[in-house]
From TrEMBL:
<keyword id="KW-0804">Transcription</keyword>
<dbReference type="InterPro" id="IPR036390">
    <property type="entry name" value="WH_DNA-bd_sf"/>
</dbReference>
<dbReference type="InterPro" id="IPR005119">
    <property type="entry name" value="LysR_subst-bd"/>
</dbReference>
<protein>
    <submittedName>
        <fullName>LysR family transcriptional regulator</fullName>
    </submittedName>
</protein>
<dbReference type="GO" id="GO:0003700">
    <property type="term" value="F:DNA-binding transcription factor activity"/>
</dbReference>
<keyword id="KW-0805">Transcription regulation</keyword>
<dbReference type="InterPro" id="IPR000847">
    <property type="entry name" value="LysR_HTH_N"/>
</dbReference>
<dbReference type="Pfam" id="PF00126">
    <property type="entry name" value="HTH_1"/>
</dbReference>
<dbReference type="GO" id="GO:0032993">
    <property type="term" value="C:protein-DNA complex"/>
</dbReference>
<dbReference type="InterPro" id="IPR036388">
    <property type="entry name" value="WH-like_DNA-bd_sf"/>
</dbReference>
<feature type="domain" description="HTH lysR-type">
    <location>
        <begin position="15"/>
        <end position="72"/>
    </location>
</feature>
<keyword id="KW-0238">DNA-binding</keyword>
<dbReference type="Pfam" id="PF03466">
    <property type="entry name" value="LysR_substrate"/>
</dbReference>
<dbReference type="GO" id="GO:0003677">
    <property type="term" value="F:DNA binding"/>
</dbReference>
<comment type="similarity">
    <text>Belongs to the LysR transcriptional regulatory family.</text>
</comment>
Length: 296
């Protein structure tokens, strides 16, 4: 087993992207001559590069005749993998070099609520050179820790010391319930009205836990793992949810109503970023979001 691993590692070290690029070019162009033209090298260089790849892998990849060059069975599989590798490398280079021209903002359940459209439009008008993408990732860091975004909108504190955060606004806390639930007839509810109910909670990203209630009057808890599941259970009348106002803005659902919880503290909306590698657009995002929440 160790010998196999050593051989595998040795071949990985010898394998070069230019070899994979050469193989794909030969297959795509159909001849070594045309591949050389496409790659901007000599035909002899193409032949040497392919021979080096076959030697490294220990297999024959192409079958040559006087009329055509075709992949062997193994070669067809290697070509397919080579295309994926080259595409992944291209994505990696794009990811590493486009930091100033692309801005990805992650969020777990809802972006910035009723400010989402205004934020997108005002950003595009003010920063046409930086493409904005909102990315939904249901993790504690809304995709920041996973590399899925550059900044993240959060509605709960982030304990990970790799990140810094700043509060950009506050949102009311609302109760989501089935439209035929008796409290739905009221304009607002109190926490005491929800005691004894089943509270649906997403422990990874949710904004509300039973600790919002006094210790002797907390609701029962049922876990959920996605906003769509949360809405489905609530619409069926099997539980209630308490969430930030932004959820109601982003996820109106037939059969569900949202009512303010008038004695619950508001939810702080935070922007998070990598402490040692903040995106160049961080300050502009902070200022725009803070203004939207302050004036909206």
């Amino acid at each position: 087993m160790h010998a196999f691993n050593d051989l595998y590692a040795e071949r990985m070290d010898e394998l070069e992207l230019r070899q994979l690029r050469c193989l794909v070019a030969i297959v795509d162009e159909g001849t070594f001559t045309d591949a050389a033209i496409a790659l901007g090298v000599s035909q002899a260089a193409v032949s040497r590069t392919l021979a080096g790849l076959e030697r490294t892998l220990g297999v024959r990849l192409l079958r040559r005749t006087s009329r055509a060059v075709t992949p062997t069975a193994t070669g067809s599989r290697v070509v397919a993998q080579a295309r994926r590798v080259l595409a992944d490398v291209a994505d990696l280079v794009q990811e590493a070099t486009s930091g100033h021209t692309r801005l990805r903002i992650g969020y777990a359940w809802s972006a910035v609520g009723r400010h989402t459209v205004a934020f997108q439009r005002r950003w595009t008008a003010a920063h046409p050179g930086t493409d904005l993408h909102l990315v939904r990732v249901n993790t504690a860091s809304a995709g920041l820790g996973e590399g899925a975004c550059d900044l993240a909108v959060l509605r709960r504190p982030l304990e990970d010391r790799r990140f810094d955060t700043a509060i950009v606004g506050l949102e009311r806390r609302l109760c989501a319930m089935a439209a035929d639930d008796p409290p739905a007839r009221r304009r607002s509810v109190r926490l005491a009205d929800l005691t004894g109910r089943v509270l649906l909670v997403d422990r990874r990203t949710g904004t509300t836990t039973p600790e919002l209630w006094p210790a002797d009057s907390r609701p029962a808890v049922e876990e959920t793992h996605d906003v769509d599941d949360w809405l489905t259970v609530i619409a069926a009348g099997r539980g209630i949810g308490v969430t930030a106002e932004s959820t109601a803005n982003q996820y109106p659902r037939h059969g569900i109503v949202y009512r303010p919880v008038r004695d619950a503290e508001p939810v702080a909306v935070r922007l998070a970023w990598w402490r040692d590698d903040p995106h160049p657009a961080l300050q502009a995002v902070l200022e725009l979001l803070s203004e939207l929440y302050r004036t909206g």
